[in-house]
């Protein structure tokens, strides 16, 4: 998610620093941005000059202090783990300017809890982007208990400035989008598990019958089965048994079948495209 956020921010005309813990990961992010920009030129979404200008606005870093020093906004996109996010917030606050807004791209965790480690939690807010960031038009602004009005207004202006549409929600488990999206995806997985229909037919039903741009099972592959499992476990803890993860999801994650990023989930993926449904032997298993 981090490279996508960097891309859309740079495309909107802002200078950006993209930071990760290893240079290899930084370079992978920069390569993905370059590929996305080139694809946009091919589809005539932007000119070659605009793509080059956007890419030139992005610096890659591994040192956190160098990355956040002087920034107006810092957006973390680390894994969905409350301890990692809190540690990241602490480290960012140590090196960022006193008036910098610190945002989390969490898709479900409590921004209020993440922000609680800050000396000044009023500058914390959730900015939940959607994958792929350069295509999806939505950003969910999550207002924590401590979020100040100045921070809230900054978030609104930033989302508008990068040409995205904001929905604003009060901090609660799963917010609006993840809570509803995961509920739909979870039920689709249960339907595969109990043999109601194949993943391909369930997705086709939602795409053709409800005009979803992508079916819930293909979307689960894109998001990552491990990410969906973590969200469900968290929502189950916070909201109850209706969010109990299906066993087939657990089995696939244990097997390392995490979706698009691993090459197989509910579909088999090649060159970033779902080419066929995965082995259907999981269907009908208890």
From TrEMBL:
Q: Where is the 3-hydroxyacyl-CoA dehydrogenase NAD binding domain?
A: 1-171
> What's a BP term from Gene Ontology annotated to this protein?
fatty acid metabolic process
Pfam families registered for this protein in UniProt: 3HCDH, 3HCDH_N
Task: Kindly indicate whether the keyword Oxidoreductase belongs to this entry.
Answer: yes
Instruction: Please verify whether the record's keywords include Cell wall biogenesis/degradation.
Output: no
Write down the position(s) of the site called Important for catalytic activity. 128
Annotated keywords:
Oxidoreductase
Q: Which residues form the 3-hydroxyacyl-CoA dehydrogenase C-terminal domain?
A: 174-269
A GO molecular function assigned to this protein is: NAD+ binding
Its recorded name reads 3-hydroxyacyl-CoA dehydrogenase
């Amino acid at each position: 998610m981090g490279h996508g956020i960097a891309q859309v921010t740079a495309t909107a005309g802002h200078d950006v620093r993209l930071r990760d813990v290893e240079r290899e990961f930084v370079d992978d992010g920069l390569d993905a941005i370059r590929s996305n920009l080139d694809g946009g030129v091919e589809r005539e979404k932007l000119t070659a000059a605009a793509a080059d200008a956007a890419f030139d606005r992005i610096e890659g870093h591994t040192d956190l202090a160098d990355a956040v020093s002087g920034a107006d906004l810092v957006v973390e996109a680390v894994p969905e783990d409350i301890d990692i996010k809190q540690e990241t917030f602490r480290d960012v606050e140590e090196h960022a300017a006193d008036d910098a807004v610190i945002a989390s791209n969490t898709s479900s965790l409590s921004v209020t809890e993440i922000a609680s480690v800050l000396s000044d939690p009023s500058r914390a807010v959730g900015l939940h982007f959607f994958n792929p960031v350069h295509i999806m038009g939505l950003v969910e602004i999550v207002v924590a208990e401590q979020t100040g009005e100045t921070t809230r207004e900054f978030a609104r202006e930033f989302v508008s400035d990068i040409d995205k549409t904001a929905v604003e929600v009060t901090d609660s488990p799963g917010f609006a989008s993840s809570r509803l999206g995961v509920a739909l995806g979870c039920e689709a997985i249960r339907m595969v598990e109990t043999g109601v229909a194949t993943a391909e037919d369930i997705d086709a039903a939602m795409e053709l019958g409800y005009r979803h741009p992508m079916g819930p099972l293909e979307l689960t592959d894109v998001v990552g089965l491990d990410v969906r499992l973590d969200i469900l476990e968290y929502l189950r803890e916070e909201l109850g048994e209706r969010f109990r993860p299906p066993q087939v999801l657990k089995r696939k994650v244990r097997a390392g079948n995490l979706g698009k990023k691993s090459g197989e989930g509910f579909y088999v993926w090649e060159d970033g495209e779902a080419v066929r449904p995965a082995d259907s032997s999981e269907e009908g298993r208890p």
